[in-house]
Amino acid sequence: MEAQHQEFVGIYDDALTEEFCASIIDAFEACPQVHSEGRIGSGVDVQKKESIDCCISEYKEWTGINQSLLNITARFLVRYVREYAFLACGALSPAVRLDSGEVLELSPENIERIPEEQLLNVILKLYRPGYLNLQKYKQGTGGYHHWHSEIYPQDESCESLHRVLLFMFFLNTVDEGGATKFHYQDITIKPKAGRMVIAPAGFTHTHKGAIPVSSDKYIVTSWILFQRAEQIYSGGH
Hints:
Layout (H helix, E strand, L loop, with lengths): L2 E4 L2 E4 L5 H12 L6 E2 L11 E2 L1 E4 L7 H21 L2 H4 L5 E3 L5 E3 L10 H11 E3 L3 E5 L5 E6 L14 E8 L9 E3 L4 E3 L6 E5 L6 E3 L7 E10 L2 H4 L5
Antiparallel strand pairs: 1-2, 2-14, 3-5, 4-10, 5-9, 6-7, 8-16, 9-16, 10-15, 11-14, 11-16, 12-13, 12-15
Helix pairs in contact: 2-4
């Protein structure tokens, strides 16, 4: 699986199989009753975002697809954290006991020594995935037209303030238009079926989605958030 890392943007081709992508699109199109107008932080505003959405994490019939996507996300999150180790050892200082009995305080110098499952356990003590939102952007009109980032005060739960990373899966290839553009990095990422993108959620990685020209565009998006403090600092974590 080809991977590119530039300016903290991780691009992973073939994270999903084309068959799995097609099955997700088919399931979405077969369930119009779960579709809703795309929303931004302040609600529906088609001048900023024009899409048809489905929060698949909310529906029992989507449990299998939702869990499969989260499992795949976990694997690629480990790869991203190995590339940018201070995600796991900057704000907090976790330690890992290896099978040999050696205890390592996690650092960029030793992170490659940590087995995948152990590193994932560390990551999941610090972070959690957000809900998964499947979005359809219609050919010629749809798009996330507004330059935006992902961290902002929204309500008393402060969930959106816990966001650290964004991630997305492109479910279909769009030959013309539909690219995700990161403003400050001058990075343009074309929609390719199975491609995953992981990037920081803050203003440094302000981005938008262009109007798809040659076909509709389907994408799944979410975030990696800090666990809430009461979770991190309870139970010996």
